[in-house]
Amino acid sequence: MTIVDVRILVEGASDVEVVSKALQGLALGSEYNITISSIIPTTNLEIAKSAAAGADLLIIATDADRVGRELADRLFRELSELVGHVERMKIPLGHDLEHIDVELVRKELKNTLVRAGLKSLQILPEYMALRNQLLDLKGKYDMLEQEKQNLENQLQELEQKYEELMQEYQRLKDENENLKILLDRRSNLVKIEDAWKQIFPGEEVPSEEIIGKAVEKLGLQGRVIVGQGYIYAEEEKLIEEILKIVYLSMTISKPEEEGIKEVEKVEEEEKLEEAEVFEERIEEL
């Protein structure tokens, strides 16, 4: 059972002697389960606050005159919030230790303790109601704590699943990128005639042989493939560049070919003329 901490506040040192004498005849520990932890002789409010703070029960023992009552009222107002309960006790006037009736003080002290106990019982229903509320709140807290634990477990599972899904998403994303690259490469296979007419409309389409030689001279074997009327390149722009080079080459070589043909034609005409002259001479002979 919990021991009740009781402190007694008196006006002066002589009151300490009187109260101590009265306490000697009381079995407070066995009868009331309380202990008098200190007797505080002071009328200073700040000292009283410091000494009384935290007590279960504070007894303010002052003289029964007007000054004592006023002091008790002031201390009661100021100290009520610092202790569990405050109770007043009157000490008879003219209380020198040699002349005071210690038994009367002892009786007043016991009555004060009884009053404090009875007043405490008055708040018992409120205490029980608060206790029941506390138990209800504790039950709700335990339930919420369990729900919190369940939610944390679910969150952990969801985070794990999310991580797995993210890994799967990344795998599919990489796979999709690879497929896209393959599709892009496949889309770079175009028909030579279509590509040529798109770049050089109205111009004669060169043969695969000419384009193949251009690829070979440019050292693009493997990166560019020509055959079956189609051309493939790793980059679509590369097809356009090769066809432009072929066109430029054809444009440059075309006048040379025409010049060669013209020379051959002149030589052939000269040969025909020589043959005719030769035939005429034969006829004359």
Automatic annotation (TrEMBL):
A Pfam family this chain is assigned to:
Toprim
Q: Which PROSITE patterns match?
A: TOPRIM (PS50880)
How is this protein named in the record? Toprim domain-containing protein
Every Toprim domain range:
5-94
Going by the UniProt record, its keywords in alphabetical order are: Coiled coil
The source's superkingdom equals Archaea
Annotated coiled-coil segments of the chain? 127-189
Q: Which organism is it from?
A: Thermococcus paralvinellae
